[in-house]
From TrEMBL:
Lineage: Bacteria, Bacillati, Actinomycetota, Actinomycetes, Micrococcales
RNA polymerase sigma-70 region domain mapped to chain residues: 41-108
The keyword Transcription is assigned to this record: yes
Sequence similarity: Belongs to the sigma-70 factor family. ECF subfamily.
SUPFAM superfamilies (UniProt xref): Sigma2 domain of RNA polymerase sigma factors, Sigma3 and sigma4 domains of RNA polymerase sigma factors
One function term, GO molecular function aspect: sigma factor activity
Organism for this UniProt entry: Glaciihabitans tibetensis
Annotated GO biological process: DNA-templated transcription initiation
Descriptive protein name: RNA polymerase ECF family sigma subunit
InterPro entries noted in UniProt: RNA_pol_sigma-70-like, RNA_pol_sigma-70_dom, RNA_pol_sigma70_r2, RNA_pol_sigma70_r4_t2, RNA_pol_sigma_r2, RNA_pol_sigma_r3/r4-like, WH-like_DNA-bd_sf
Length: 200
């Protein structure tokens, strides 16, 4: 496995320029299977390759992984390098940029695929049907329990809990004292709890 070791930044510019010019020559030797030339080429370009990939990917671990893929591709395809079309370092950096962009696209495609699968696997229709059934069953139970109340209790409960009226408004509507409304509501709710099997 390749170990990426960025070159020191204290190399004089004139010394750095000479090896860069030699990248094409090194690539031609790499194409012949020269491992020493590959090591020199790696030392020459690793920092620039990794820097370019990091600017695209941001993630250091993924950047190192893609850089390794780039150098593996350089080793395997060095014979395709054509000096007439550009410099060796440019050829390698173009390859690095392409692979970094491919990784970004692949990651985005994976996220999109996961989102689609999540949406497909989420079945709101099933959930809403189950919820509707549950509410319907519960409503039927409450309706049956309401039938067990006296007419006076049922009136008070319907007005207070279904109609949303206050105790004083219920008393006014039924033309009875507020104390009577409170008693009917209390007795009605106790009866409903008993019928529905709800602990008080």
């Amino acid at each position: 496995m390749l170990k990426l070791v960025p070159r020191s930044n204290d190399v004089p510019p004139e010394e750095a320029a000479v090896p860069r010019a030699a990248a094409g020559l090194l690539l031609s030797r790499v194409a012949e299977g020269d491992q020493g030339a590959f090591a020199e080429l790696y030392d020459l370009t690793a920092a620039r390759v990794l820097g370019l990939i990091r600017r695209v990917l941001k993630d250091p671990a993924q950047s190192e992984e893609v850089a390794q893929e780039v150098f593996l591709e350089v080793w395997q395809t060095a014979s395709r390098f054509d000096a007439a079309k550009g410099g060796g370092a440019t050829w390698i950096l173009t390859m690095a940029h392409r692979r970094a962009v491919d990784r970004v696209r692949s990651s985005q495609a994976g996220r999109d695929r996961d989102t689609k699968v999540g949406i497909r696997d989420y079945t709101p229709d099933y959930d809403s049907v189950a919820e509707t059934v549950e509410v319907t069953v519960e409503s039927e139970r409450v309706a049956k329990a309401m039938e067990r109340l006296t007419e006076l209790q049922r009136q008070a409960v319907k007005l207070a809990y279904y109609g949303g009226y206050s105790h004083s408004e219920v008393a006014e509507l039924l033309k009875v004292p507020i104390g009577t409304v409170k008693t009917r509501l209390r007795d009605g709710m106790i009866r409903l709890r008993d019928e529905l099997g709800v602990a008080s």
